[in-house]
Structures are given as C-alpha cells and as structure tokens.
Amino acid sequence: MPTHRAQVLSISFNNIIGDIPKNIGCLSKLEEFYIGDNPIKGTIPTSLGNISTLHNLNCKNNHIVGQIPPELGKLSNLRELKLANNYNLIGEIPEAIFNISSLEVIAFSFNNLSGRIPTTTGLHLPNLKELYLGDNQLEGEIPLFITNASKLQTLALNDNSLKGTIPNNLGNLRELQILLLHTNQLTNEPRKHALKFFNSLANYRMLRYLEVGNNPLSGVLPNSIGNLSSTIEKNYLADAHINGLIPTRTYSRGGMQFV
Fold it and tell me: How many Å apart are CA 245 and CA 222, to the nearest integer?
C-alpha cells in the first residue's frame, strides 16, 4: 500500500472479508479510519501506530482477534478508539493507551480482555467522555484515576470480575450521566454498615442510569439515596445483598425506577 494523502477511509457496514492490511501505516495523512461492522478477521496491525495524524479509529463489530497492540499508544492525536464487539480480542489493555490525553472515547466492551485496568501513576485522560470496558474478563480494583477524568459522561465497567470497593469520590465526575458497575465482585468498605459511595453521588445533576446490582455489596442504603437527582431514570440494585429499610425520602422521587 503506497503512501497516500487520504484523510478519511470509511468502509464500514459492508461485507468486506480478510485482514486489515499490515502496511496500513503507509497512509501517513489519515485522520479517520472506519472499518467497523464487517466480517473482517485477523489482528490489529501494529503499523497503525505510525499514523500520528489519526483522530478516529473505529474497528467495532468485526471478528478481529489477538491483542491490542501497545503501538496504538503512540497516536497522540487520537480522540475516539472503538474496538468493541469483536469478542476475541484478548490480553491486557496496553497502559500506553490510557496516557493519550486527547482521547474522548474508549470503547472496548464485549471482548475477552483480561488483567487489570491500567493504574500506573501518571495516567492522564482530561478529555475522556466515554469509557466502555464492560463484558470482558477484567480483574482488580476500579482505578482511582478514573475519578479525575472530570469530563466523563459514561463509565461502563459492568460484567467483569472487578473486586474491591466502589470509590467514594465519584462525586468528582460532575458530568456523569451513566454509571454501570453491575455484575462484578464489588463490596462495601470493611467494617462499614451504610453504602457510603451513594453519598458522593447525591449532588449529581445529570445522572440518568445507575446500575450497581449483582455485586456482594452487603450494606444498607444511606439516607443520601433520597438526594439523588430527579433526572435518574433507573437505579439497578438487584442481587446486591442489601439489607435494612428503604429510606423514606426515596418514596418521593417520582422519576426514579428501582430495580
């Protein structure tokens, strides 16, 4: 594939088969690459990391296999990285990807990724708006750096094997609209009775979906749950080992649906 001045390559929603060309990196001026929703197989070429101009990389809903190459971490201008719904992407998430400060969307859901969410000091995602890591095999705790991504609107870590507690400083995410932590192994803080993470959510004004069910939380609902924003449409708490009484203030939240 010769060097080319193409800035946008969009071939999504076709019936294209085969692999992504290994020398795709020769398209040195490419800014947007959309190849999703095809029966494309093979691995993600490491040469993609050579396209420093790349803003959008969309390879979702394909049949791509193998690991996410760490070379993608060199894409310092990348805004959207979508690799969701490939099902057979394996291995750990490269730490370098979480150091791309320009990223606004990371979508890795519905794969077979394992290991921990990168937690190394220095991770910096000031522009991140959407983080989708659900339906993988991720382990470990929820990294505290996530609560510093102040522009985050969607945080989806559901259907993994995450352990530890739900951070008490989620209230830093003032723009959060969707919080999906259900179906993990998250627990309450040791020797604590109330589920205090609800306190940090009480001042949210944009939260619409809160799902923390199917976790062994083992605690009682604090009174602060009645302060959750009237914008909440769904609060999923099923199978979370919650005990005690439902605080009376929650009865007046007409827009909230408990499940």
Answer: 9
Task: Check: CB of residue 240 under 8 Å from CB of residue 215.
Answer: yes
Q: What is the pLDDT of residue 151?
A: 93
Sign of CA dihedral 169, 98, 95, 34: positive
Q: What is the pLDDT of residue 249?
A: 58
Residues 154/178, Cβ–Cβ less than 8 Å: yes
What pLDDT does 193 receive? Answer: 76
Question: To which residue do tokens 């969309």 refer?
Answer: 58
- The DSSP code sequence of 67-134 is EPPGGGGG-TT--EEE--S-SEEEEPPPGGGGG-TT--EEE--SSEEEEEPP--TT---TT--EEE--
Pull the structure tokens for residue 159: 């259907």
pLDDT digits (tens, 9 = 90+) for 136-160: 999 999 988 888 888 999 999 999 9
> What is the Cα–Cα distance from 154 to 126, expressed in whole angstroms?
14
Amino acid found at 79: R
For the purposes of burial, counting CB atoms within 10 Å of the CB of 142, is it exposed (0-12), middle (13-18) or buried (19 or more)? buried
Query: In whole numbers, what is the pLDDT of the chain averaged over residues?
Result: 88
- pLDDT, tens digit, 9 for 90 and up, residues 154-194: 999 999 999 999 988 887 888 999 999 999 999 988 767 77
What pTM did the predictor assign?
A: 0.91
Q: What is the largest CA-CA distance in the chain?
A: 68
DSSP-derived letter for residue 34 is: E
Q: CA triplet 91, 143, 89: central angle to 5 degrees?
A: 20
Task: Please tell me the distance from the alpha carbon of residue 56 to that of residue 106, in angstroms, as a whole number.
Answer: 11
